[in-house]
Amino acid sequence: MLDQITPVVLTFNEAPNIGRVLERLAWAKDVVVVDSLSTDDTLDIVGRFPNVRVFERVFDSHSDQWRFAIQDTGIETDWVMRLDADYILPPETVDEIAALAPDEATAGYLSRFVYCVHGRRLRATLYPPRPRLFRRSRARIYQDGHTDEVALDGAVR
To answer: What total number of domains does the chain contain?
Structure first.
């Protein structure tokens, strides 16, 4: 399934993090980064990865950035993996995704997170699992308070 997925990352001044997440995406033919006009070394770091295409866009809202990222950047796959620059994608997760065989009814998959502060894992979280792997054709992104949400038309696993 990995060849059917385009990972997408939003950035703004993510020099300390972006290299780590992009290294974990070496399996992807195409990675899209939408940068909100970073003033640090983010774009220099991103430029070291030949499978990454960068788009610069002034930030107006999370929902507008994500809609632009998945609708207006020439992504050719229906499946997108929505990531933040500070995510750590373990090899086991990539293996699990590679083994997926979604049927037509499946619109996306939820992901749980391990939250850390200063490198230390928190014992628990109040945040529910979120859709991070989904079909672009079945996704609606909308603003929800200070951030955005993804609504999927179809089964969510």
So the answer is: 1
CATH number of the domain at 16, please: 3.90.550.10
Could you report the per-residue pLDDT of 9-48, keeping only the tens digit for each?
999 999 999 999 999 999 999 999 999 999 999 999 999 9
Q: What is the dihedral of CA 32, 37, 40, 45, to 10 degrees?
A: 20
Q: Which amino acid is at 5?
A: I
Reference 138, options 152, 121, 156; nearest CA is 152
How many residues belong to the chain? 157
User: Containing domain of residue 77, as a range?
Assistant: 2-156
Distances (CA, A) of 104 to 111, 124, 138: 20, 34, 11
